[in-house]
Structures are given as C-alpha cells and as structure tokens.
User: Which sequence fits this backbone?
C-alpha cells in the first residue's frame, strides 16, 4: 500500500528486544510489484483529526465507490490470482466434486466468506442474495470458479465491507467491538477468533478482553498498526515530497531512485518499533538512550559531507621524483639496449661477411623487412619492437607459436601501408579448414587483407579481403595435399593493385589485378591466426607459425626466391644466437636480464598525476560511497551519545520535511511540534498575513529578524508567541537536519526562547530537557492522538474523562507503550 513507509526484512516484532542490527528498507518511492493487472488502491484521505480512518464518515463519493468496485474486479481477474497464490482457493474458488450438492456448497462457502468479509454482520437474506447471483451465473454457463470470483469482487465492493456501522443490537455491538479492536491494532478486518468470541457474546468481558488484547499484541499482524499509526502521527509521508535545492544539499538526491529521505524515514519508525517491542516508556520517544542508524545516517549526522582534498604539493613532489626515476631508468634501458645491439650486430656482421663470400649464383639479397617475428618462445619483434599481443591461449613448441582458436595482433602501425608483402613460414595440420587466416593486415572496421586458406575453394590459398573486394582465385593454383608440411608463403601487393602469391618461393597460380588498398597509419595492425576482426566463426586458423615478416614494399620474384632459400642479407636472430661464443652468450644474457629488470621497474613508476583529475577521482569515489550507503538496508542500534540528536523531534526526517527547498521554516517546525507532540494545533493563519520578505537587502538578516514583521501583526502575535520558541529552538539544524552553528551569511544561530511562557532555554539540548520536565503535556498529547486513531474520529467533551484517566495512569508510571494501548482498548469510549 502507498502509505506503508517501512518494510521489515528482519523479523523481530515477536521478540522481547529488537536485535542490535536489523534489515529494513522503504519501498515508498520504488514499490515492489504485486499481482499483475491489479488497479491501484484508492488512497485514503486524511481526516481533520490527521489520520486516514474516519469512523464518523456517513457517505462515500460515487467515484470512490466505483474505484473500489474496479479494484475488487481487477484483483480476482489478475493472472496471478491462482491456486498457487490464493490461500483460500480450495475453500472458496475451487470447483467442487462432481457429486456434491452445488447449491449447498455455494451457501456454505458464502457463509464463511461473508462472515469474514462483513465482520460477522452478514445475515441469511444477504447470503441468499449472493447465492442466487452465483447460481444464476452458473445457469448462464459461467464456470464455477469464475462465478465465485464475481461473488467475491461484489462482496469486496459492498457497503457492508467498505463501511463500519454502529447498531443498538447487543449481539451486533460485540461484532462492532471485534472490528474496532482489529482495525485499531491490526489495521484490518477481524480474524475467526475475534468473530467467534463476538458471536458467543464473550468479547466484552474484562478477562476475555484482556486475554484477547494480549493475543493481538503478540500476533504478527500488529505490524499493520506499526505501519499505519506512527507514520501518520508523525506525518512522515510529507518527507517523500522533500526536494532540497541541490546547491545547498548535493547528496540528498544523489541517487534518484534511493534518495536520502528513504533512509531518514526509517530512523523514527525504528525507534517507535523499539519502544513498542521492548515495551518502553512513551517519554523515550522524545529522549531515548539509543537509536537505529544506517551507515548513511551516521555519515549524514557526523561528517561534513565533503570529499577529502588531495594533497597537491605531495602529488607535484611525487611527480617530480617519479620523473627523475623514470628518466634514469629510460637512460639505463637505452644504454643496455645499445650495448646488447652492438654485441649482436658484430656477430651479425660476421655472418653477413661469410654469406657475401658465397658463389655468384647464391649472392645474398638485402630484403630489409619492416618487421620480423621469430617466435622463439616469445612474441617479440626484432626490427622495430612491434611486440605482438595474444588473444586466447597461446603455446610455444619447437621454436614455433601454436594458435588454436586464438590469434595474435600487433599495436597500430605508425605508417601508411600501400604496396606491401606478407611473408610467413607455417605448418597446417588440418588442411580442410575453411576461411581461417594465417597472416594479414587489419585496418579500421572490416577493412583487411589476409592470407586465407579454403574460403573459396577447399585447400586453396587466397588473398582474403572485406567483401572479396580485392579478392580473386589464383588461376591454376593447386590444393594443399600434405598436412603438417612446412610452408613458405609470401603474398605481394603492388601499388597498381596486382596481387601475387608465392609458395615455397615459386608463384602460386597466376596473379590478378583487382584494385589496391591503403591501410592508414595508427589504425592498422598485423594479425596472425585470424582472417579479420572480430574473432569468431570460421575466421580462426589452427596453425603453427615458425617466423613471419612484414615488408612496406612489394617484393620481387627473385627476392621471394632468395628469402625462401635463405639467401637474404637478413640474418635471423636464431642464427645470431647460434654463432655467439660462450662469453658473448653470458654477456648477452646478463644484459638481457638487466634490461628486463629495468623495464619491470619502469612499469612500476606511476605516471605523473594531474591534481585536478586526482581530485575528481576522489570525488567520484566519495560519491560512489554515498550511493552505496543510500542503498543499504542495515541499521544498527547506536547509543544516544549526542544529546542534540535522537527521538522523534530532532531527527533528519522531521527536520527535513518541516523545511523548504532553500531555507528552514521555523514556523512549520513549531507548528509540527505543537500539533504532533502536544496535540494542541494552532488555528490557521489569517488571510491577510503578508508573505515573508526575501529581498536582497535582507540577506544579512537572520530568520528570526525576518519574522519580526509577522510578530508585530496583532492578529499573528498570539500564534507566534506559541510557535516561535518551538520552531526557533531547532534552528541549529539546516534544511536536511544537519547541525550548523552559523547561517550562510555568517550570522550566529540564536535558538534561545521561553517554553510555555515559563521555561527559558538557550540550546536545543536544554529545550529537549524542558520537554521532559513537561512530560505530562507530551503524554496527554500522545494519548489523545492514539485515542483519536483508535476511535477514528475527533475527540469530544465526552471523551475527556477517559483521556484524563488514561493520562493519569501513564503519568503515575504506567506509561509503557503496551500498557497505554491496553488502557485505550479498555476505555469507555472505545468499548461503547
């Protein structure tokens, strides 16, 4: 129901004490879904006495009656209204057995149902009218269950269900008492036991009534009283409409679905629950020794709600130190790389010299690859440090990288690729793969050129491209036949759009010309084991790659042949490694180890931080923490160590809902105290009262000074003399219940006043202490509220004796919550 403000996730109402930690939440702004297709419950309006139960209402509007009728029909027609969800299905709605007397079954079921629905006031004539209705529908061919649904919906929109009437019949007065008790303590219709006692005429007997009240207070349905009375008494529903100016309270609505109001509203409701469950004295509602707060409320009350400030000087100094460390490591890396490269280059030069002395027919060719990968246990590149990144599981065996449903990709190339050559040595064990790529260039989007196996013809190689836009079959090509054979493939792309494939140094079929492509710098990468991105489907190629090279030019046939025969001037790293002497290997390993250490240390050096961005990151983390706390359902019992806070007056819920979006409203706060705490509401203000001036020239005034003009008005002076001390006593609390010593204009907050024209106070703590001294006023006010709620009407002169009696008993030391509830239920106006 919309008026329910707290949902208890922890079951504690039947315990002697509330647990020190409970889980509760408010679903008022985010109600949990109920039965599907059920219309909204018509909202009960507040009566003049402040509660939504009106026992002296003589009529309902036709529109409201129609709304209840539509609601009752929608309930039984909901797709969720089934045997699984309806407890009384088999007893009322289910089809009876075939040999049963249907008319008798209908009357028996309606007897029980109407007895409950109409609270014992259904006679045989009423029952027979409903039975005749059901029988008529059955004769029309309507299924039995649907007939009973129609009867139920009719009963739920009947005046006998919607109204609670009074009577002079002694028997019916017992049923009236059962209803009055049930709607007071359970906020719902009587159960079978109450109706049984009423039918036997025993309910009003003192012994029976006492025992019945004990049973009702211990029943789990008492939660409905705790859902209804406290929130209406404290007017907490108003909190849901609070929207403080974000410039003045940034975090109140930081999370639109979980506003601060949903945390605040739970604090006073949990206090009321504790006073009831633990049968504490009423005065503890004003000045308790404990409270229940969430992490959010603890933060709200005790912190300045400001993200921690970053230490700019420390960040700048750390950046300076890290820059020095970074430059030093970069220097060490450069020096070590230079020494290692010089060592390896000297060996490479000796190998080249030997190769150049070969016969003329085998004269080596200087291929000068743009990038080269040798896959000797790693993914490093030996020319330009274009190290590859693995995507998926990658293994290394026999000096080769093994790819299976995985692929490799380089960082973006820093050059535009027009003419190019892709060269790879590989082994393919499964030649029946269709569409996987061994090596290619991946451009932006779906733009690619790749050496692909079997996409157009089984076991044939092609140059795959996006949409086959630069693809054709190599005329005269032959299929692969020997699985696991070491293959040398070189795909050459010329500027004029000609594409040529070489297999083991010889042309693979005939070249074709179908357009050229330029792969843009910084947006193109080399890929292995994949036709193109994104991965998936048949784009992967299960392959073992021994080595690969990328050229930023189109190789000639002789260059490809020389490379295939190993006659190039490019010396592979593994050949260099094999030619190293023992001393050279030791030195190379030492330099490599140092280089690895320097690079690892360099990665650990934090980048220079921007103080502004650092502060923004801190702010985001702080706000994320607030959001997490706003969604918390955990409330802990905390001692009332700070006398400024606690109780139903000085909590964020009440203080927020009695304020405006931009400033506090002392008069609203005073009116709330005099109405809710003392039940002595002031008359409405005169129509000719001028509004409070908010001109710019009053920015340096305090609210007390702004209200001076109102107090000077003779028609307002009387009310202000009563309201001002109560409202201004709470001025140390801002628009959301947080403590302040000064206003925004720098003026000191003045809360001093005189309570009831006799007790002076200077602080809110003194103000609350004075209320305790005048506890008889609060107790009488609370009892009168509770009696009004129990009777469902305004109190009149005839009720004053009962009110005096209950208040006197409470002041005499019997002011525990349950005792007061019992005394009200056994009072003269309640019983009669």
Assistant:
């Amino acid at each position: 129901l919309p008026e329910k403000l707290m949902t208890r996730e922890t079951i504690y109402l039947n315990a002697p004490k509330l647990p020190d930690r409970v889980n509760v939440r408010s679903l008022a702004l985010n109600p949990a879904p109920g039965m599907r297709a059920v219309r909204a419950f018509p909202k009960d309006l507040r009566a003049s006495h402040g509660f939504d139960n009106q026992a002296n209402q003589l009529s309902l509007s036709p529109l409201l009656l129609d709304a209840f009728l539509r609601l009752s029909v929608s309930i039984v027609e909901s797709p969720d209204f089934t045997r699984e969800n309806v407890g009384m299905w088999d007893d009322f709605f289910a089809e009876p057995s075939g040999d049963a007397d249907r008319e008798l079954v209908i009357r028996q079921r309606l007897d029980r149902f109407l007895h409950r629905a109409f609270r014992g006031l259904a006679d045989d004539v009423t029952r027979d009218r409903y039975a005749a209705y059901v029988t008529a529908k059955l004769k029309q061919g309507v299924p039995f269950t649907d007939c009973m649904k129609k009867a139920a919906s009719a009963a739920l929109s009947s005046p006998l269900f919607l109204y609670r009437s009074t009577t002079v019949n002694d028997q019916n007065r017992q049923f009236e008492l059962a209803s009055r008790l049930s709607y007071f303590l359970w906020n719902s219709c009587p159960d079978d036991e109450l109706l049984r006692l009423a039918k036997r005429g025993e309910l009003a007997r003192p012994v029976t009534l006492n025992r019945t009240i004990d049973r009702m207070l211990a029943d789990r349905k008492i939660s409905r009283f705790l859902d209804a009375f406290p929130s209406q008494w404290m007017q907490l529903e108003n909190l849901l409409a609070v929207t403080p100016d974000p410039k003045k309270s940034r975090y109140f609505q930081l999370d639109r679905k979980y506003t601060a109001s949903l945390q605040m509203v739970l604090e006073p409701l949990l206090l009321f629950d504790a006073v009831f469950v633990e049968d504490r004295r009423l005065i503890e509602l004003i000045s308790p020794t404990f409270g229940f707060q969430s992490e959010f409320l603890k933060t709200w009350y005790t912190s300045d709600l400001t993200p921690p400030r970053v230490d700019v000087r420390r960040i700048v100094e750390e950046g300076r130190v890290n820059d020095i460390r970074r430059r030093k490591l970069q220097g060490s890396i450069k020096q070590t790389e230079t020494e290692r490269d010089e060592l390896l280059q000297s060996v490479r030069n000796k190998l080249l010299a030997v190769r150049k002395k070969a016969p003329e027919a085998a004269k080596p060719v200087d291929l000068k690859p743009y990038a080269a990968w040798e896959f000797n246990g790693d993914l490093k590149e030996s020319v330009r440090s274009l190290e590859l990144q693995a995507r998926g599981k990658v293994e290394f065996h026999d000096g080769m990288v093994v790819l299976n449903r995985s692929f490799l990709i380089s960082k973006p190339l820093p050059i535009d690729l027009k003419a190019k050559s892709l060269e790879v040595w590989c082994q393919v064990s499964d030649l029946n793969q269709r569409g996987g790529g061994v090596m290619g260039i991946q451009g932006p989007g779906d733009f690619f050129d790749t050496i692909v196996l079997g996409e157009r013809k089984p076991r044939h190689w092609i140059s795959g491209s996006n949409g086959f836009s630069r693809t054709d079959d190599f005329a005269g090509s032959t299929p692969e036949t020997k699985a696991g054979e070491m293959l040398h493939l070189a795909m050459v792309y010329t500027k004029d759009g000609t594409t040529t494939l070489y297999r083991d140094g010889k042309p693979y079929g005939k070249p074709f010309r179908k357009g050229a492509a330029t792969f843009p710098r910084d947006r193109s990468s080399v890929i292995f084991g994949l036709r193109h991105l994104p991965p998936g489907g048949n784009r992967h190629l299960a392959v073992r790659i021994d080595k690969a090279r990328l050229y930023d030019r189109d190789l000639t046939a002789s260059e490809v042949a020389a490379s295939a025969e190993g006659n190039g001037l490019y010396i592979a790293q593994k050949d260099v490694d094999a030619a190293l002497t023992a001393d050279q290997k030791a030195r190379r390993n030492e330099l490599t180890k140092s280089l690895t250490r320097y690079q690892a240390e360099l990665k650990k050096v934090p980048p220079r931080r921007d103080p502004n961005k650092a502060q923004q990151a801190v702010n985001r983390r702080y706000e994320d923490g607030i959001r997490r706390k706003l969604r918390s359902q955990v409330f802990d019992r905390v001692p009332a160590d700070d006398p400024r806070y606690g109780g139903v007056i000085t909590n964020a819920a009440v203080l927020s809902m009695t304020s405006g979006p931009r400033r506090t409203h002392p008069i609203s706060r005073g009116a709330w105290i005099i109405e809710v705490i003392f039940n002595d509401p002031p008359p409405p203000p005169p129509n000719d009262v001028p509004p409070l001036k908010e001109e710019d020239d009053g920015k340096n005034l305090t609210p007390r000074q702004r209200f001076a003009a109102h107090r000077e008005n003779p028609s307002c002076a009387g009310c202000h003399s009563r309201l001002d001390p109560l409202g201004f006593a709470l001025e140390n609390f801002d628009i959301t219940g947080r403590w302040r010593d000064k206003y925004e204009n720098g003026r000191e907050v003045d809360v001093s006043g005189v309570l009831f024209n006799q007790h002076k106070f200077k602080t809110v703590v003194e103000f609350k202490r004075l209320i305790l001294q005048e506890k008889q006023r609060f107790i009488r006010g609370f009892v009168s509220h509770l009696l009004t709620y129990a009777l469902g009407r305004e109190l009149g002169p005839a009720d004053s004796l009962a009110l005096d009696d209950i208040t006197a008993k409470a002041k005499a030391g019997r002011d525990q919550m349950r005792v007061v509830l019992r005394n009200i239920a056994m009072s003269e106006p309640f019983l009669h």
Remarks:
- The chain has 28 helices and 21 strands.
